[in-house]
């Protein structure tokens, strides 16, 4: 059996940091309210000359360096994003050009905040099927470009950044499972309107997120005949600390087994899991051989989980 194994990770965060106290100067909110309701303290925001392509290239370059690979070694580039600067060419094609990768396939995946898990599922199947050996999967988002900065119920939640993983064919696990789901009848609770601005019913999103994340994470455990105690680290989509904690509580997993970056990054949509993964690996908490549970939820509505042995 061929598995897709995470060989390396990389990430990029824009230099500019906006703290809650900065937001409280322009809208009717407070650091205390935001921290209490979301766990978010600050977020990174792109500069004028940055976009999803430049961030993706920066994250990918670090992953390639960590893997001691060159762009020519890649068979495929997948970018998960819902904030592409252009509908086409795909962000992945622009990334391919800037990296100088040749002779590889390149396309985008759009499943909002669940995009990384959807992309992981696609990449895993290309590798398990034997067609490709090395796939670069990136989540890159410039959420700050699609926010109404006067809407205090949504603009406080999001941030910008990119995370990348390189998946390589291996004969040991690997990505052990992915479970994907969607329910388009809830498309109106979280969406980009005609002016490309985020609209959200926060309360409805919150409740559905906790319910469906718990379900899809349990599916991952059952599918792999694993107990909550078998999980070394949960690397969740970073939307809200209360969603993260409620989900792991319902699974019977302790909060100290969760990689949390929502305080520093806010919700970076499809970039949040690979960003958190890179943080956990580079600071030494996540180690080779450990079992990781990824789970994400986003507009669509979409959600999914992945069980990964590093
Ligand atoms: N600062 C201060 N007050 C705020 C505020 C802010 N930034 N945003 C909203 N409020 C106010 C509301 O106007 C409301 O006031 P009212 O009672 O006078 O009408 C009050 O706070 C409570 O609002 P509510 O929406 O019920 O708060 P909440 O506890 O549900 O928290 C969210 C709001 C957005 C933080 C929360 O619903 C959430 O995180 N939802 C999930 C969103 C998400 O993760 N989306 C992305 C998914 S990928």
What portion of the residues fall into strands of 2 or more residues? Answer: 25-35%
Average of per-residue pLDDT values: 97
Helix residue percentage = 25-40%
Count helical runs: 9
Low-confidence sequence ranges: none
CATH architecture level-2 label of the largest domain: 3-Layer(aba) Sandwich
Reading the helices and strands in chain order gives EEHHEHEHEHEEEEEHEHHHEE
Q: How is the main sheet built?
A: 5 strands, mixed
Could you describe the 3D structure shown?
There is one protein chain. The chain has 310 residues and is α/β, with parallel strands linked by helices. It has two domains: 3-170, 3-Layer(aba) Sandwich (Peroxisomal Thiolase, Chain A, domain 1); 175-309, Thiolase/Chalcone synthase (Peroxisomal Thiolase, Chain A, domain 1), CATH 3.40.47. The chain contains nine helices and 13 strands. The strands form four sheets. It has a five-stranded mixed sheet with strand order 1-7-6-4-5, with helices on both faces. Strand 9 (190-192) and strand 10 form a beta hairpin. Helix 3 (52-67) crosses helix 4 (91-99) and helix 6 (202-223) runs parallel beside helix 7. The radius of gyration is 18 Å and the shape is globular. 53% of the residues are buried. The mean pLDDT is 97. It binds coenzyme A.
């Amino acid at each position: 059996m061929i598995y897709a194994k995470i060989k390396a990770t990389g990430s990029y965060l824009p230099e500019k940091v906006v703290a809650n106290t900065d937001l409280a100067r322009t809208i009717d909110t407070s650091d205390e309210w935001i921290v209490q309701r979301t766990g978010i303290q600050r977020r990174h925001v792109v500069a004028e000359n940055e976009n999803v392509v430049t961030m993706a290239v920066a994250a990918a370059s670090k992953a390639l360096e960590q893997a001691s690979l060159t762009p020519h070694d890649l068979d495929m580039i997948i970018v998960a994003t819902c904030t592409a600067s252009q509908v086409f060419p795909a962000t992945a094609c622009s990334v391919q050009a800037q990296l100088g990768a040749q002779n590889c396939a390149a396309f985008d995946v759009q499943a909002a905040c669940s995009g990384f898990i959807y992309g992981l599922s696609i990449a895993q199947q290309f590798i398990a099927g034997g067609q490709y050996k090395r796939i670069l999967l990136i989540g890159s988002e410039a959420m700050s470009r699609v926010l109404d900065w006067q809407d205090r119920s949504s603009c406080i939640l999001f941030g910008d950044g990119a995370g990348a993983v390189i998946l390589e064919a291996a004969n040991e696990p690997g990505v052990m499972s992915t479970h994907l789901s969607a329910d388009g009848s809830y498309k109106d609770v979280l969406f980009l309107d005609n002016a490309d601005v985020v609209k959200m019913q926060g309360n409805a999103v919150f409740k559905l997120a906790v319910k469906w994340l718990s379900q899809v994470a349990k599916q991952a455990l059952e599918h792999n005949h694993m107990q909550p105690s078998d999980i070394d680290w949960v690397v969740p989509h970073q939307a809200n600390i209360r969603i993260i904690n409620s989900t792991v509580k319902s699974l019977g997993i302790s909060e100290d087994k969760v990689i949390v970056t929502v305080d520093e990054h806010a919700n970076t949509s499809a970039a949040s899991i690979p960003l958190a993964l890179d943080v956990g690996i580079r600071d030494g908490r996540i180690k080779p051989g450990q079992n990781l549970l990824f789970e994400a939820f986003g507009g669509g509505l979409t959600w999914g989980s992945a069980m990964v042995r590093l």
